[in-house]
Amino acid sequence: MKRILFVDDEPAVLAGLRTRLHRLHTKWEMQFVESGTVAIERMQERPCDVIVTDMRMPGMDGAKLLEIVNERWPETVRIVLSGYAELQQTVRLVSVAHQYLSKPCQPQQLENVIDRCLLLHELLNQPGLRSLVGRIRALPTLPRIYSALQGIVKDDSVTLADVAKLVGSDSALAARMLQIVNSAFFRLARRISNIEQAVSYLGFQSIRNLAMSVEIFSRWPGKACAGLDLEKLQRHVHAVAAAANALAARTPISDDTLLAGLLHDIGYWVLAQECPQDLTRAVELAVSQDIPLHAAEYQVLGASHAEIGAYLLGIWGLPYPVVEAVAHHHQPERVTQTEFDVLSALVIGHALVADDASVFNAVVPPDSKIDSRYLLAVKAPFSWEEAVRRVAETTASQEVAA
Length: 402
Known about the structure:
By secondary structure, this protein is α/β, with parallel strands linked by helices.
């Protein structure tokens, strides 16, 4: 049974949570404690799967509590449930809290958020990898992007469109911005997956404050591993995002599809930063055994960059269709698909551009290609020939723009 730990210094709040969530006692093992100190003691006795804490508490506040949990129990999913939300606290919490919910919070909303986080355990069933991802506080951006970000937020002449273009040029930067804007800090009526909307909603002042925090955005520290060319990887994800978006144009899923394309290889940022030796071994294994790279990653790590990236995006609270598409873009057969959706748009777009193995300085076998039969299975609103034409036109327009 999954264990959930609730922390709040107000006994009435804890009593209310205990009462409203009592119906879930056969589903979760729940504990309710009144301070960060007691929470740490309970974690030492037996770590929990999810911790939900208030922000403002005497002695040890929620940010300090989650910082300790991040360091000592990184596999635990960290959620803030608080009625206190100011921008300066955003900087403190974003690097240690996976998600932020505001009080008052409906029991069904809280249950749904916790359930989604726990379901991700099934997606990434390696505790060691969950710990690896859970401890991540920032994904470094490429030096030129980081420098541009630092410069653009100090320039009063730039427009929000300029900022959105920069954010959209870097997967790590985009993922973090979407995590922030979709947190309850900003009390949105709906989730945002459109980067221009996210930047517009945040506004210059918020972006400036966030961008200057090294705990949220930082420069990539050095060379990539395993021959991974991060600039090539960025070009690859942009090509896939453009291709998938061309297929989903003028449909309700277009924003999610573009975002899924941009983030589909975010797992490589995690692997390059956290376990470069394992990624190197996977590339070498793919070459020696003539197998796709994601299959080699399974042999070395027990999961691929797809599941690792999806787990990160999931605990950060990004939209479920995006998380699902990232998780299964190499193996769509794992999901029952009866209609054209974000996953199928990403899969088809991915198949029509250069394989992501090309971002490594090695000859790695590509995935087995999909064909027109897949389009029929997902009821795609276009033929294979039409898909090829749309992607080719998009590619040509990108080359002209470049």
